[in-house]
Amino acid sequence: MEILQQFLENTGFWNLEIRNAVMIVIGIVFITLAITKDYEPLLLVPIGMGIIVGNIPPVQGMALSVYDDWNGPQGMQGASVLSFIYFGVKYGLFPPLIFLGIGAMTDFSTMLSNPKLVLLGAAAQIGVFLTFLGALVLKFSGKEAGAIGIIGGADGPTAIFLSAKLAPELLGAIAIAAYSYMALVPVIQPPIMKLLTSKDERKIRMKPPREVSKREKIIFPIAGFLICTMLAPGALVLIGMLFFGNLLKESGVTERLAQSARTSMIDIVTILLGFAVGASTQAQTFLRPQSLMIFGLGAAAFAIATAGGVLFAKLMNLFLTEKINPLVGAAGVSAVPDSARVVQMVGLEEDPDNHLLMHAMAPNVSGVLGSAVAAGVLWAVL
Amino acid sequence: MDFQNINKFDGFAIAGTGLLIVFVALTMISVFIALLPKVLAILAVFLPPETEHQRFSSANNSTDDEEVAVAIAFALHQAELQKQ
Q1: Distance from CA of B49 to the nearest CA of A (A)
Q2: What pTM did the predictor assign?
Q3: Domain residues of chain B, as ranges?
Q4: What is the predicted ipTM?
Q5: I want to staple A27 with a disulfide (CB 3.0 to 4.6 A). Which of A33, A48, A311, B3 is the partner?
Q6: How far is residue A368 from each of residues A122, A287, A325, A373, measured CA to CA in Å?
Q7: Is A215 within 8 Å of B22 when comparing Cβ atoms?
Q8: Residues of A in contact with B27 (CB under 8 A)
Q9: Closest residue by Cα to residue A230 from A241, A220, A240, A219
């Protein structure tokens, strides 16, 4: 009887707290949304499953959670399997590998063909820094505010990288906020875009992008890397891997490596990253008032970033003879390629023959650079 | 809410400097991109002509996208033949 009682007391049913049950339900909701509504399934399924796994109540004396790592009294013997997977998140290993894959699948030619659109990616980063200030007002510390602000960069790997460096205790909430709002870009952006632009502005047609030579596409990743990292060395890892992946793609002599980077490798890392992030969102660390504030700030970050890009495009139009369709500014929010698709969709509503997708890809990819530089700056100064 | 917290952590300075660095970096990239074709045009006399590198010729190395495109083209062709 004693053994049976001991066994029962070690089961998850016995130790389950209400908040763990709530988190398990949240994980199931994420999986359901991913499968039924196609909301970022490649991320929400691993994250959702990780949440479920991470919220099974721990058993005394057994190393099971991501937080049971090698720093405990038992050293490596006391480290759980999940903690080894979480290593890649905690020490910022996985996000640069994802950036390698992203670089290997990114085509910078739309950006190269219309360089002034690069500035729209910079303008959208105002969402990062205004959210940073908002987080400070809400009494977060400097490092926490920096980690929360980067949600405005709308870049999952960058958000995970910076929060692992600055505020690992908020990583779960920040990652889930970032990916949730990235999935909601088609809901968040259109009202803001329509509010800030007139019908005539939304109908502006832009010149088709020019042909970009192969030589430009090869030189750009090297030069772009040097420019960004000389100014913001903190962005070295993310920018370096992004442009390395792009060079693998554009050089023409490393197609095998580029193919591996943008398919198998990025998929493997995405699985491990999503799962580990989800498993880190234990109820004890996730279900706190700070998490609600982070979600609120995240929504504000996306809204401000969208507005920043659109308004900057309108500002540029005051000085340009060849006008930019200000809707394209919203694509500076670097949720690639969703925000560019939203620009296309909103543009087509006004003029069914005005295809803005290729133009929107330029600020979309420059937004990735901008958010990585912003992360580098915040990491360096905080 | 605590607006003094902004001053405590030099919030305005960090935000302003950060945004400035982002703008400077991307402006420099924008200028570089704008000048690059002109520089390459000037150097074209000295540079070797651009050539396409040999891609793998084996059918097994075609990308999934190419295979999908071929399948779609075939299906459309078949549909056209049936209409006739």
Answers
A1: 10
A2: 0.84
A3: 1-48
A4: 0.86
A5: A48
A6: 9, 30, 20, 9
A7: no
A8: 118-119, 122
A9: A240
